[in-house]
Amino acid sequence: MQDLKQKLFSFGIYGTKISELTQEEIILLLEKTWVEIVSHNEIKNLQASFTLVSLPNERLTAYNHYTKNGFDLFLLNFLKNKYIRMETVAWKDYLTNGAFNFVSKEYYLFINLLLSKNEFVHSSELKSALNLQPKKLFYLVKKLASLGLLEKKSYNNGYLVKLIRDENGCILTLKNNQPNINIQPSVRNQLNTDLNTHNLSKNELRFDIPLYEQIRRLVFQSAHGISSHDIFQKFGIKIKVGLKLLTKLSKINEGKIISRDEFDGKIKRTKFYFIEQLEKCKNKSEIFTSQEEPYSGNKMITVEDRIHAIECLIDQKGSFLLDRDNVDELKRILGVKYDLDRRTIINSAIKGGFNVCKSIIKDNNIRYVISDKNAKEDEQIFNKISQKESFEIKKLSKFQQNIYRYFVIYFKFLEKDNGFISDKNIRNKYFYLFLRNISTQKQQERFVFDHLIINEMPLYLILGLLSFKKPNFKNFIIEEIRKSLFNGNLNVKKLKTEIFERK
C-alpha cells in the first residue's frame, strides 16, 4: 500500500485519469478515505481556484457498488472518465509526515510544480509559472531546503532547485522524529494558539465528505450555535479560516442561517445558528444547557442563561441577597470563572420577571434582594433576608463557607441528593423502558403522553428524570408519604401532581 500511496502522490495535487491505474490498484484505493474520485470539471475548477476544501467525492458511490456487484461493466463505465487524486491535505501530510504544517496554496503549487519535473528548475521559471514575488519564492525555498526536501544551487543570476529523490526516484518524505515546525496551522496537525491547544486525537474531520457539508451539518444540528472557535476545536481549522467558511455558508443558506455576536466570558464571538433550532431553544428559554457538544469549550452566556441561573438559586433559597457569595454561586451554576456584573444580573432578573428590591443594611449600604416572581415586595421580609444572610456569613469562616457551597448547596449535588440521574443516556434508557412497558400494557405502538401516563410513572423514576435543586426535596417527599401513611390518607396521584407543579 505504501508503494501505491507513493504512486498516487507522485501524480500531484490534481491527480490523474483513473485509467492510469490497474484494476487491482483501483480496488485497493476505493477503500481509502484519503482518496478522491472526481470529474474532469472538478479538476479544472481546482486548477482555476485552489482550495483546501475536499472536492465532491464519488469514491463511496463506486465503493458501495463494488462491494455489492464487484468490478462489473457498470463500474468500469462509471470510472472511465473520472480522475483519481489524493485529498489535498492528505497529499501534504504524506510529504511532511506531521513535521511541517502549512495551509498556504503557494506551498502546494510550488511542490506540485517541482514534483512534475524530475530535474532542476530555475528560479525565474518558478516566479513566472507561479506568479510569485522574489521574496516569497526565496522564503519557500529556504524553508523547504532547511527541512531537507529541496536541493538548491546557484546558477546564472539566480538559483536552481529540485525535490530530493531516493535511488528509486521516489520523493523523500520527512520523518516523524523531526521537530514540529509551525508555519501556519494545518487542519490535520496539532496546533498551538493563544486560545487553546488542539488535540489531534479529537480531530473529527472526515476527508470523504466535503468540508462545507460537514460544517453545514454541524450548524443545522446544533442548538448552541457554532463559532469559528468550535470549528477549530472540532476540526483543527484555523479560527480565521473557520470564520470565513461559516460566513460563506451563511450567505449560501441565506434565510436558514443567521449570525449574532455573543460573549464567551469577556471574549466576543460570532455564532451561527440554524434558525429553526434557535426558535426551538427560545421556546424552551434555555439555549446552552445541553451537554451533547463537549468540544464547544466554555458556554456562551446569554440573558436566558442568567435568568435560568437566578431561577435555580431561587429554587434553593426562595429569595437571596445579591452579595459576593450569591454572585459566586451564580457563577458556579453558569459554569464560568470570570466575575459577573451585578447590574447585568439585576437587569436579567427584571427581564425574567423576578422581584428585585433595594435593601438597606448596616452603614446605609444598599443591597439588592431577588425573590420569586410570585413573592410580594415586602420591605420587612427583604430586610430579614438581608440580616439572615449577613448573620450566616459572619457565622461561618471563609473555609467553612467554601465547604458549605461546594458540598451542601452546590446545585449538581442537590440534584443527586434528590435522586436525579446525571447520565443522560441512562435517563433516556429508563424513560424508554417505561414507555415500552406502557405500550405493551396498552397494546398500542402510539399513545398520548398525558397525566394518566404520568400517574403510571413510579416516584423514583420521576425524581430520576427531573432535576430538583431544592435542598432535601426527596426527603420532603418521603416525609409526606410517611405522614400520609400514618394518617391513612395517602394519595399518590395527588402527590405526583404536586411534584410536577413544583417543577
UniProtKB/TrEMBL annotation:
UniProt-listed Pfam families: HTH_micro
Record InterPro entries: HTH_micro (IPR031541)
Protein name: HTH domain-containing protein
Source organism: Hamiltosporidium tvaerminnensis
